[in-house]
Amino acid sequence: MKKAFLFLCFFAAICLSASLAAPLSLNEVIKNLQSNQSKIKDMYAETKTTITSNMVMPGQETKGPQKMVQKGKMWTKGESKSKIEMLSPMKQTTVTNGDKMAIINPETGQKMVQDLKRLKGQGTGGKGQESMSLEKAKEFFDLSVAEKDGGYVITGVPKKDNKFLGKMQFFVDPTKWVPVKIVMYDAKGKPMSQSEIEYKKVSDIWVPEKNKSLVTTPMGKMEVEMEFSNIKVNKGISDGEFKVE
């Protein structure tokens, strides 16, 4: 009887300590997210993107939902090198290396090189080419974190007034330490885009396998489903793949 009582006390103590465990801070959640991401030194994948849209541009007639399938390949290395090779329905290669970006038509050989640092200085959107990590997001957003449904939600509110973006939310799976859903809200608090991400383990690292996004605008809706296959991680991609001349 005494042993049974001691066991119940021990069990109750474990349950109490678990219930009193303090939630992680914002910096701790970001650190855990970065621990998985930092394992990826380089990555290659083949992609299939299916876009379904009922958007109607001003002056156009409604023609019903439009569907397009794009196939391609992608290479990434570190935070500043990427290469996207579109194979169909059109062919185009985009290479980013630091502050340089080249857009190449492989059929004609025509190439356009842009200086992203100069574009940023002109305020023409070059900033969007940067890798937007949660750590870097601190520069542009006031971030907070809360527990929800067994996971964490990181909310970012722009530090400067923004007519289009009200806030962003990252839903984090603490068993993998990856964002499984990202939602963007307009200035009135209405969702304008939502992405749900599925992962698979490659070389003991969680990497995206499928990304489903829904974008809502006054002109209609667009659904984008991106699938990654033949994923290779940390196989040693040469810097020559990202040469911009």
**CATH homologous superfamily - what is it?**
Lipoprotein localisation LolA/LolB/LppX
Strand order of the largest sheet: 6-5-4-3-2-1-13-12-11-10-9-8-7
| Average of the residue pLDDT scores | 84
Total beta-strand segments: 13
Might you state the CATH topology name?
outer membrane lipoprotein receptor (LolB), chain A
Helix vs. strand class:
alpha+beta
Question: Uncertain segments of ≥5 residues (pLDDT<50)?
Answer: 1-20, 123-132
In sequence order, what are the helices and strands, one letter per element?
HHEEEEEEHHEEEEEEE
CATH class category name: Mainly Beta
**Principal-axes shape call:** globular
Over all CA atoms, what is the radius of gyration?
Answer: 22 Å
Q: Count of helices?
A: 4
The CATH architecture assignment turns out to be Clam
Alpha carbon gap, first and last residue: 80 Å
State the share of residues found in helices, binned by percent: 10-25%
Number of domains: 1
Report the biggest beta sheet as strand number plus sense, adding barrel if it closes.
Answer: 13 strands, antiparallel
Strand content: over 45%
Overview of this structure, please?
- The protein is of the alpha+beta class and 245 residues long.
- Strand 7 and strand 8 form a beta hairpin.
- It is built from four helices and 13 strands.
- The termini are far apart.
- The relative contact order is 0.17.
- The N terminus is likely disordered.
- The chain has one domain: Lipoprotein localisation LolA/LolB/LppX (outer membrane lipoprotein receptor (LolB), chain A), CATH 2.50.20.
- The chain has a 13-stranded antiparallel sheet.
